[in-house]
What does this fold into?
Amino acid sequence: MRWLAQLRMRIEMLFGRGKAAARLDDELRFHLERQIAENLAAGMTAEEARYAAQRTFGNPALVREQARATWGLNWLELLLRDVRYGVRTLRRTPGFSLIAITVMALSIGAATSLFTVVRSVLLRPLPFRDPARLVMVFEHFRDPSSNQEGFSYNSVAPADYYDWRAQTHGFEDMGAWRWARLNLTGEHGELPELINGGGGSWNLFPLLGVHAAIGRTFTESEDHPDGNAVMLTWNLFERRFGGDPSEVGRQIHLEGKPYTVVGVLPKSFAYPDASIQVWVPYASGMPPAVLEHHDFHFSRVVARLRPDVTLASALSQVEAVQYRLHLQYLNAPVAEDVAPRTINDDLARDVKKPLLLLMCAVGCMLLIGCLNVANLLVARGAARQKEVAIRGALGAQRSTLIRAQLTESLLICLAGGVGGVLLSLAATKWMASTWKDLPNAMSIHVDGVVLGFACALVFSAALLAGLLPAISSTGKAAFAALQASSRTTSGNLSRATLRKSLLTVEIAITVVLLIGAGLLLRSFVRLRSADVGCVTDHVLTLDYSLPEKKYDSPEKVNAFNETLLERVRATPGVSAAALGSAVPGAGVGEDDDFTIPEHPPISPGAPLPDALYRTADPGYFSALQIPLLNGHFFSSDDRVGTPKTIIVSRQLARQYFPGENPLGKHLHVASRGDADSEIVGIVADTLFHVGQPAKPTMYVPVLNGENDQGVTLAVRTASDPLAMSVPVQKQIAALDPGLPVSQVQTMQQAIGDSLGNASFSATLVLGFAVLSLVLASVGLYGVLSYLMTQRATELGVRMALGAQRDQVLRLILFDGLRPAILGLVIGSAASAGITQLIRSMLYDTRPLDPAVYVAVTITLLTVATLACMVPAWRASRLDPMQALRME
Amino acid sequence: MGKPNDLVQGTLDLLILKTLRPEAMHGWAIGKRIQQVSGEVLQVQQGSLYPALHRLEQQGWIKAKWAESETGRQAKFYSLTAAGRGQLEKETANWARLSAAIDLIMGEA
It folds into this structure.
């Protein structure tokens, strides 16, 4: 029954606290009375008896406190008291409270938003069955520059995937998928739409554990080149088919061929990203020959680990198969090894590094915010020194005093945290919509875990900001305040040193942030102004892809392309037009390996030379102003049926024809037929992607009859290029009303898109850095103002003894600038090390770029001087008489 | 005055329980009784006694009742609960074991 008694006590203590307190007093008084009575009986006088009793009894307040401390729920009472007390002190200094709360709200808000994004992108498990056992398997070339993705990973060739799946047993199953761009039309070619699609192996969906919301997923018999099953994503199903379930079983047309809708994917399925609208079987629509290739790298492989097998042993099986394949096809680019990557990492490929960088930046800002609040609290501790000393003398334990101060910083951080979470609700939405490459963008939202994170932040920030000032202001030295009659006690000086050290740290962190931001910004400016190698001003680009069913012969393809070019060039306002598989700056597109028949054969085992493969019309180079270095451009005679010709870039000529004239030599591109192509021209280099070095490039005539990749039409205009988009699209519609065009944009937009993320992270880091600078200067100003008040008497004496005003000004100014300069030196030194980490994110900018360091130094010194100037000026205006009287 | 250390505190709890075993008493009398029985060796400070009494009460080992004292004034009388009696037996056994062990060690030297 003991728990019952305890429970009764608890309840009594919760509701009858006042009564219990009165009873405790009564009990203690009874004790005292008995002691007095005993003393009287021993023969003392009444007065003696009372004093002696009180002496034996000791400090009644303390006994009362200690007895109360044993009561249930005592902590709650103490907490409430601390909170009440804290709120009261904070309300007494609204200015201080507002600044501190705003600082915390900004830092906590930014950190929470970023955490939300990081969690959704990097940490959240995908909506698949047992996602922890899913792993992406890539090919991996030992020569790092051969890998397409991040220097470690290379997409998988279809034949490699088939061999892996058939010949290894470490994985429960392996599935593959590929990207596809598909022309979706109704049955009669109406409502054409160019959409992103995925080609998924029949076992992909069962492997992921995804079931169709309506209908079914693919069957093994559908996964072949003529397979004509299609699954709609929920998005397309709602958008284009009005969510009508009877659509399952009907037909839609993709690339002009009929496909039967077998199922609809659930709404939650947005893998690999939300841009994919339909899924077709992996092999569907692929030329059978392509599926047999070990060197056409375009697939991603997802594998599910068997529960009883380790990843290492499962991978070693795949590796063995891959190495055998490598030895079998020594001259072709077949990778030696395989490399695993988690499915989340794979999705986050390009954003992981910037995200982590931003997370660090925001962490620094949070730290500065905490330091700032700590600084402000230290300043207040000085003002409240006497109060603390008195409370201590009355028997308050040091832990009680520390707790009271911590409660204050907790209150500040809590209020800041609430503001911060509200801020981050808005900021997260903005970030998810602005950051283009972010995978999983749909699923980014604030939820319980994020709120938990915010709470953890609030408490650690409160501890960080409150502990140092609390400890420093409650130590033994604090009691000296009672002994000292003067205002200027030695405790204040040590406190000033503490504040200056805090400030130095703050400034050092700010410098690191500023330098990081400066480097990113400079790199971004370099990217912006990078020369792509061709004209980018006043150029409109758009993509189209002629469906193979309708344009089933090279003649039909050429007729369309040539007529269109002719018409576009004749359109008023158009000064030139180019047609090719890609324009510079648009990405890798296709690359192929080749051999040079005039050269001795490549030794077995050595990789074949490789170059970007582009198609170009005769006017392509002159329209885009890519200079001809030697030979001649294509003519309209370079077309299907005539001897094959090819134009190479300067880099290809240099790299593979060192010291000889490539003109008249031949290239043999095995994947593009048996005939050799004669090199007829050499053109200048262009960048395939801004921020990456140029690659060797070969150009073949667009009229050679190949129609397996889409084409880009680039139109140079006299005026605003976007204004020409309608007239140009009208020309296309006049030739084929059912042909969809996509990516209608200016070339600068197209290039800018690839820079968007660089600009985004540079801007954000800069934002954090500027905010930190503001915080640090507020700190500087606060410390100096405080020091000045502390030293008012001293300054008054100095001035009374004849110190000049400008001497006083200089004195205070240098006092404030010293931590700033020290922080600057420390921060610069730290930056030199830390910025090496972002080296890979910098384009054409060294981590030790002197211009950035100089700019940051000047900015920081200017801001610091300004922040110090106000208190210093005020000090120099002191009236010595008044300052002396303040004592 | 600091907090009584663990050994003293645990011992004080035992002494209080033992003292309350025969009859209910108020705080003053408990202190006096311990002093007398120990032959004036153990003097319980009020600063330790009342916190200990309140703690034991919170734990449910003893219960309190306000009643008239020998002087006619209302006083708070503490008495053992059933659980407290059990606790006393356990603590007594513990104490016997502990002191016997200490005696063994001291006798050795």
Observations:
- The two ends of chain B are 35 Å apart (CA to CA).
- Strands of chain B lie at 25-26, 62-68, 74-80.
- Residues 1-7 of chain B have pLDDT under 50 and may be disordered.
- Helices of chain B lie at 6-20, 27-37, 46-59, 82-108.
